[in-house]
Description:
It is a single chain. The chain has 159 residues and is mostly helical. The protein has one domain. Helices cover 69% and strands 3% of the residues. The chain contains six helices and two strands; from the N terminus they run E-H-H-H-H-H-H-E. Strands 1-2 form a two-stranded antiparallel ribbon. The longest helix has 26 residues, at 98-123. The N and C termini lie close together (5 Å). The model has no long low-confidence stretch (mean pLDDT 91).
Amino acid sequence: MTRHRNGWVLWVSLLLALLLGLVPLPDLLQPLRPYWLALVLAYWLLEAPDRVSMGKAFFLGLLGDLAFGSLLGEQALRLAVLAFILDRFRARLRFFPLWQQALTMGVLLLNDRVINAVIHFVMGAQQLPWTYWSSPLLGALLWPPLHLVLDTLRLRRRS
């Protein structure tokens, strides 16, 4: 048995993450929506840094801005900051146990939420309600299953 890398998984997973961000949710569940684009991008930045870079993260953020109707460049900046931090600490993070990676992702998603709040404050845009600060916790809880699913797809065995 040999392992082969599935090149399509990267682009399909990022497209699916973008689409998951567009799925309408009831008002009660809207604050709990995880930042799927950041979670999937973080996986690829950790596991395949040769295929995803800070420039691609910025471009993906611009696509997210256009798709979600947010301030142009907002998600691009947020994802570029995430990519920079993950690139800087990649060598350590890859060897953390999955539960520690999940905690780290929660902190990174919280950092993303802070960047979002600062951008909205500086631009004079309306701030999100305090309930939106709970989504990084859900993102941290979703990290282990997301990581395992993407690992399985990326490293599928061929007989």
